[in-house]
């Protein structure tokens, strides 16, 4: 059985040892993006903020592909670590990185060839088009390193080294902050400066991660990847719910942007950008909890320790609910203050953003439970349950609500769609947990 599960540590201490560095790392990563927004809002304006949100659908397309591949590979890799089969774990690790790198390279290359068409598809027209060229035109090619860094982080945590992953992330974040100040505030390079700061900062954790995995210090070894097409299909299937989760953000952001542009205009998209930053901050903390949960559940499940599987899940849900409660109180209390940090000169932007943040804050009370449950099923290798919850939450329910609610509730309905979506999906998640509990009981008794 896996050494981690026999270490004698209390499950809460084991979970915190994995989750806290991951939470801190993910929070710092997302906080740097928020800082980007603060610099852009202050020195470029609401059009710059709107541009960063209009390119989000493409960013999450890349994130969806990469997370599908890396999480899909992490699940069987950690199961093999739990069984003590390090050779098989390394083979899966090598297949995963080869597939992830090639996939993202091809998507980025295609986007570069059809760049003007991509800008039009993302609604970057008129005065926003030049902002899009300056921002996405530079950042596009750095996205390859961003996605590889995600893979490094996932597998570092899978082998039990979350603090090292945190160090890599922190180094890149500090560099990004310094370059933001230099390129945007001092040199006045605007959107180009923001893109260059982020892109250059991504290279630092990439180089650290590459050196680590090539140094021979990792449990995972890079080997010549031997694989079958059926194996690749199963790998992608394992990570399909995570892909759906990211794709859903892309689809939903695209639809939200279209509705906001039609009903409110650029100020509406800029306001949604600020709300999106807060949602992302809370979501990244939840992602850190997930990254602490997934390897523990995967290794416990591989070792057939279903008691630990359930305990780790309950601990993660408790942590997510605590984060959700704190986020709700903080966001609701500061809903009128937070938008002023980004842009103090546009009354319409301030009004729309304040209302949006207040309504959106209610979603924090339930989204943690839905996100943790989705990740839990992925860690068990039950991608069907996970994918269905992710589809309901991120594609089906939310987009039906955002298209219907404004017809009856006006602009308020756009924001109200977000918390109502979490409430409805929570019922579906509870149903699948009820079904899965019976399966785990049967597994434990055999």
Automatic annotation (TrEMBL):
Keywords: Antibiotic resistance, Cell membrane, Membrane, Transmembrane, Transmembrane helix, Transport
Entry's Gene Ontology BP terms: response to antibiotic
Alphabetized GO MF terms: antiporter activity; xenobiotic transmembrane transporter activity
Pfam families found in the cross-reference section: MatE (PF01554)
Keyword Transmembrane helix appears in the UniProt entry: yes
Similarity-based family: Belongs to the multi antimicrobial extrusion (MATE) (TC 2.A.66.1) family. MepA subfamily.
Protein name: Multidrug export protein MepA
Organism: Sediminispirochaeta smaragdinae (strain DSM 11293 / JCM 15392 / SEBR 4228)
């Amino acid at each position: 059985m896996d050494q981690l599960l026999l270490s004698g540590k209390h499950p809460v201490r084991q979970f915190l040892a994995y989750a806290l560095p991951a939470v801190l790392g993910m929070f710092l990563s997302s906080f740097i993006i928020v800082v980007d927004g603060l610099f852009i809002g202050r020195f470029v304006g609401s059009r710059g903020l709107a541009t960063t949100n209009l390119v989000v659908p493409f960013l999450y397309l890349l994130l969806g592909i990469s997370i599908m591949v890396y999480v899909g590979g992490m699940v069987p890799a950690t199961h093999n670590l739990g069984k003590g089969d390090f050779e098989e774990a390394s083979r899966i690790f090598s297949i995963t990185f080869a597939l992830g790198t090639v996939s993202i390279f091809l998507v980025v290359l295609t986007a570069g060839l059809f760049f003007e068409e991509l800008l039009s598809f993302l609604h970057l027209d008129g005065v926003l088009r030049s902002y899009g060229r300056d921002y996405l035109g530079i950042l596009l090619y750095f996205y390859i390193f961003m996605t590889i860094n995600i893979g490094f982080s996932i597998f570092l945590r899978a082998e039990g080294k979350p603090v090292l992953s945190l160090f890599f992330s922190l180094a890149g974040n500090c560099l990004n902050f310094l370059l933001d100040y230099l390129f945007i505030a001092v040199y006045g390079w605007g959107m180009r400066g923001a893109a260059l700061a982020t892109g250059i900062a991504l290279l630092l954790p990439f180089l650290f991660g590459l050196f680590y995995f090539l140094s021979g210090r990792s449990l995972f070894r890079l080997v010549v990847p031997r694989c079958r097409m059926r194996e690749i299909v199963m790998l992608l299937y394992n990570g399909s719910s995570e892909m759906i989760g990211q794709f859903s953000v892309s689809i939903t952001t695209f639809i939200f942007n279209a509705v906001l542009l039609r009903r409110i205009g650029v100020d509406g998209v800029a306001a949604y950008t600020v709300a999106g930053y807060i949602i992302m901050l809370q979501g990244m903390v939840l992602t850190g909890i997930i990254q602490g949960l997934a390897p523990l559940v995967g290794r416990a499940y591989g070792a057939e320790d279903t008691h630990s599987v359930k305990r780790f899940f309950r601990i993660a849900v408790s942590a997510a609910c605590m984060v959700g409660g704190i986020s709700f109180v903080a966001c609701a209390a500061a809903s009128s203050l937070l938008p002023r940090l980004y842009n103090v000169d546009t009354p319409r932007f301030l009004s729309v953003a304040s209302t949006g943040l207040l309504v959106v804050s209610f979603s924090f009370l339930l989204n943690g439970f839905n996100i943790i449950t989705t990740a839990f099923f992925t860690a068990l290798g039950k991608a069907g349950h996970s994918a269905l919850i992710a589809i309901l939450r991120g594609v089906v329910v939310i987009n039906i609500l955002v298209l219907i609610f404004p017809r009856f509730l006006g602009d308020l309905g756009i924001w109200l769609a977000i918390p109502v979506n979490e409430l409805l999906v929570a019922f579906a998640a509870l149903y699948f947990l009820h079904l899965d509990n019976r399966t785990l009981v049967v597994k434990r008794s055999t």
